[in-house]
Specification:
A three-stranded parallel beta sheet has the order 1-4-5, covered by helices on one side. The protein is built from eight helices and five strands. The protein has one domain. 30% of the residues lie in helices and 10% in strands. By secondary structure, it is an alpha/beta fold. Helix 1 packs parallel to helix 2.
Length: 203
């Protein structure tokens, strides 16, 4: 399976995320689903590769490391679906960062009832239903159905007014299945004119 790495391979995960973010025209939308045990400082605990019962440095992915990997990401948008405890640490750091303006942190409502967004209430109470997001679902509409989430993400509405594949919401006329597959899903061939246009902007 392409793009799937064991959570024992921290260096490989970091290198892959960094590569996608640094490479021009590599990704329009980068989606990361974070779901692992965490320390109270937001550090994600990866697999105990050496089975010593201790979270060694290579088995921890800190908030600082994640933010460094995503800083200045060249993707149009980075969506962080967070399904773990102590996500408030990451949320606070992102809200004060000028290097992550295209990063959107999406949390389930289970955290919204807690003043510091640090504790998960219980497994299965996440009402955001991320598994129900289809290829044609408008992210803004889907997240707007979750009470309390619209206001928090209001400043990022432009980044969320698309599907997971980056297709525009509420296109008129609606995109056909073949248009969705051809224009937005899977690998895309970038027109030479767009390469040239973006190259001139960045130099």
């Amino acid at each position: 399976m392409v793009g799937v790495y064991s959570t024992t391979e921290k260096a490989v995960i970091r290198n892959h995320v960094s590569y996608i973010c640094r490479k021009q025209h590599c990704a329009d939308t980068l989606v990361l689903y974070l779901n692992s045990p965490t320390r109270n400082d937001g550090t994600m605990l990866l697999w105990d590769a050496n089975l010593n019962g201790i979270a060694d440095l290579k088995e921890r992915y800190s908030v600082n490391e994640l933010l460094a990997d995503l800083a200045g990401c060249r993707a149009t948008r980075v969506l962080l679906f967070v399904d773990q405890s102590y996500s408030g640490v990451l949320s606070k750091r992102l809200s004060n960062s000028q290097k992550h303006l295209n990063v959107v942190l999406v949390q389930g409502p289970a955290w919204h009832n807690h003043p510091y967004q640090n504790q998960r209430l219980s497994h299965g109470e996440d009402g955001s239903n991320w598994s129900l997001i289809s290829s044609t679902t408008c992210l803004l509409d889907h997240l707007g159905q979750v009470e309390g989430i619209s206001h928090r993400l209001e400043s990022r509405a432009a980044l969320l007014n698309v599907t997971l594949a980056g297709a525009p919401c509420n296109a008129t006329p609606p995109l056909t299945d073949s248009e969705m597959r051809r224009e937005y899903q899977g690998c895309q061939n970038l027109p030479t004119a767009l390469w040239h246009q973006k190259y001139r902007r960045t130099n």
